[in-house]
Structure formats: structure tokens, C-alpha cells
Specification:
The protein is 40% helix and 24% strand. It has 366 residues and is an alpha+beta fold. The strands form 4 sheets. A 5-stranded mixed β-sheet has the order 7-6-5-8-9, sandwiched between helices. Strands 3-2-1-4 form a 4-stranded antiparallel β-sheet, covered by helices on one side. Strand 6 and strand 7 form a beta hairpin. The relative contact order is 0.10.
């Protein structure tokens, strides 16, 4: 499991030596461990830094248990640096060798599967879950005041209360709202502690609607969907339902983001598209959310002084006056800069609109 601290360490690691970045899909549905071992060997066969190959092979032969769906691994043997991260979500197999860890696939996984807060709610209580990268990280529960039910044909009343069925109905509504209000307050605390990025609510339509209305507005804005489910559902069922609803909501959100970026770029405010304009915004620290079509990469140039990125072959940096060096992938370095500056990165699986606009764009802070 990779944490935010791990991601920041990868972003900061720059040994000026060769770093091997390996992503291996080990989904059991796509083959046995032996099949995945063969794929691993084919990925490693062209790597020239044999010390890294030996370290990686030793890890998979003697330490790795082949559980999960994928693994991300970063090795710089000459610097005694080795970081393996088993993951419970799929990542396409690939290997890259460069001066820094190749983090773009991890950014994609964090965007798609990171930071889900899920609440299952009924009239009496609630269960809170925090799922990160396909794994249950934390869970809590709340059990409030019992809600009495009205018996058929008569008035089951709470002690000390009168009014028959109407009174019982009012009492039930009052207890339900008290329970829901406390559950909403506890959910907000749970989300805050675990830095939840998106919220899903499970339960009946009425319970979900009431719970949603009682959440603080800052958390209401992060609700991406809801779904019917029994509050006693298993962790596996909760995860499967939440990820399905979350994926559908993510597609809608991404489509809206692309529309906002393209509209903002056309109006000359709030958004940019195409690589060079986006790289300029990245350098200026204006990017709030970077959007990239999956698989997009492009060579470019980086200033040796201030690290300004461009696809234009120019002799002198307009910001610091230093010279430029060629780089194999300006997109990867843009991803690193945005993440390092606290921005978000969205790697889009399919977006014809963004492809037409140059495969990359950004929503700007200002």
C-alpha cells in the first residue's frame, strides 16, 4: 500500500543516477504467478543496469507473495534505494529507466481509486469506511437510539408519550433525525481524519436523502453518488458496489472537467490546452488540476537553471537566462511538478474532446 508520504518521497527522489520504475500486473484472473513471472522476465531483459535486475529478481523470488492485483517498484541499486508497493488495483505492466521514478501510472491509480469515504446509513445507525487503492484502510460504526415500530392496528407508544399512531410517527421521526444528525457529525470527523476525496452513501432513498441534508456543506460537495445496500453488507460487497458507482461518477466528473478546461481555454481564463501552454502554466504554479489522455507523452526541453519545461527548441530560458537540455518526456515531469505543488492529476482513459485539444490541458488556480 502506498501512502501520501510515500508518494511525496518518490517525487522528491532525484539521485542523478539510473532509477528503474517497474509496474507489474499480477491479476490472478489474467494468469498464474508463473505466467506473471515470465512477463516480468520479458520486462527486465533489456535493462542494462544488472544490479537493479538482480535486486528486483531477488525480491520476486524470495520476498513477494504474489497477492493483490499489481505491484509498483522503484530501484536504484547504486544508491541502495529500493521501494516496492503491492497494490490491490490493476496497473498496466511496463518498465521505464530514467533519472527519477516514473510516477504517472501511480498518479492515475490514485486518481481512480484513492480516498473513498463510504457511509452505510439507516434510521438507527451508520457504518463508515475508508477505502484507498482498493483496500479497506479504516472503518467505524455508530449505533444510536432505538427506533420503535408502530404495531399493526394500534399505537405502540414510547414511555411517557401520548397521541396514538400520529404521536408515534412524530416520535420515530424525531429519533431518526437525532440519530442521523449524530451520524452525519461523526462521518464528517471520519472523513476529515482520513482526508477523504470523494464520498458515497449507501442505504434507502429516504435515509440517504436525510443523511445527505444533514452533512456539512463542505462534505455534501464531495458526494459523488449513492446506492441501495443493506447496512449489514460485507466489506467485499461494500467495496464492489462503491467502486462501481464511483467509477461511473468519475467518468461524469472527468467529462465536466474537460468541458470546463476547454471552455476556459477558449475564453482565455481559467483553463489552458495543448502541451506548451500547459507547461508554461505548470512552471508558473497556476495549475490546480492537470488533465492528460492516457498514454500521452512527448519529448521536450528543460531549463538547467529553473527547470522551466517547453517543447520549443530555444537557446536561452526566458525566466532565468540559463540553457536547456533535452528530455524524453515533458509530460512526466509536468505530472511531478503539479503533484509536488499540491495540485491534482487526472489521467483520462477515453476523452475524444481532450484528444482533439492536444491530449493535455489544465484547470487553473488563477
Amino acid at each position: 500500500m502506498i501512502t501520501e508520504h510515500d508518494m511525496q518521497e518518490l517525487l522528491a527522489y532525484s539521485p542523478d543516477k539510473t532509477v528503474v520504475s517497474l509496474y507489474l500486473n499480477i491479476d490472478p484472473a489474467e494468469g498464474s504467478a508463473e505466467v506473471h513471472r515470465l512477463h516480468l522476465r520479458s520486462l527486465l531483459k533489456d535493462i542494462e543496469t544488472r544490479k537493479d535486475v538482480q535486486v528486483i529478481e531477488r525480491f520476486f523470488d524470495h520476498e513477494f507473495n504474489w497477492s493483490g492485483q499489481s505491484v509498483a517498484l522503484f530501484s536504484c541499486a547504486t544508491d541502495h534505494y529500493f521501494r516496492p508497493y503491492p497494490l490491490a488495483v490493476p496497473i498496466r505492466s511496463q518498465v521505464q529507466v530514467g533519472k527519477r521514478p516514473h510516477v504517472k501510472p501511480l498518479a492515475d491509480a490514485l486518481d481512480a481509486y484513492g480516498g473513498y469515504g463510504v457511509v452505510l446509513v439507516d434510521k438507527q445507525g451508520a457504518r463508515f469506511f475508508y477505502f484507498h487503492l482498493g483496500e479497506l484502510r479504516e472503518q467505524e460504526s455508530f449505533n444510536g437510539e432505538s427506533v420503535r415500530r408502530t404495531k399493526r392496528g394500534g399505537g405502540s407508544q414510547a414511555p411517557g408519550r401520548r397521541g396514538g399512531t400520529a404521536g408515534q410517527t412524530r416520535y420515530t421521526e424525531e429519533v431518526t433525525e437525532r440519530n442521523m444528525k449524530e451520524a452525519a457529525d461523526l462521518a464528517a470527523e471520519f472523513f476529515q481524519v482520513h482526508r477523504v476525496r470523494r464520498v458515497l452513501i449507501g442505504g434507502t432513498d429516504d435515509n440517504v436523502a436525510l443523511f445527505r441534508s444533514l452533512l456539512p456543506k463542505s462534505w455534501q460537495s464531495l458526494i459523488v453518488g449513492d446506492f441501495p445496500i443493506n447496512t449489514n453488507a460485507s466489506h467485499k460487497e461494500v467495496l464492489e458496489r462503491a467502486m462501481k458507482v464511483g467509477a461511473e461518477a468519475e467518468k461524469r466528473r472527468e467529462a465536466q472537467l474537460v468541458k470546463s478546461v476547454i471552455t476556459g481555454a477558449a475564453k482565455g481564463r481559467g483553463g489552458v490546452v495543448r502541451l506548451d501552454d500547459t507547461l508554461s502554466a505548470v512552471h508558473e504554479g497556476r495549475v490546480q488540476t492537470l488533465l492528460i489522455c492516457e498514454g500521452f507523452h512527448a519529448p521536450g526541453f528543460r531549463c538547467r537553471g529553473c527547470s522551466y519545461l517547453t517543447i520549443q527548441e530555444i537557446s536561452t530560458c526566458p525566466f532565468c537566462g540559463n540553457t536547456f537540455g533535452r528530455i524524453t518526456d515533458a509530460v512526466e515531469l509536468a505530472v511531478r511538478k503539479v503533484l509536488h505543488n499540491g495540485g491534482d492529476v487526472e489521467v483520462l482513459q477515453q476523452s475524444p474532446e481532450l484528444e482533439k485539444a492536444g491530449n493535455i490541458g489544465a484547470l487553473l488556480r488563477y
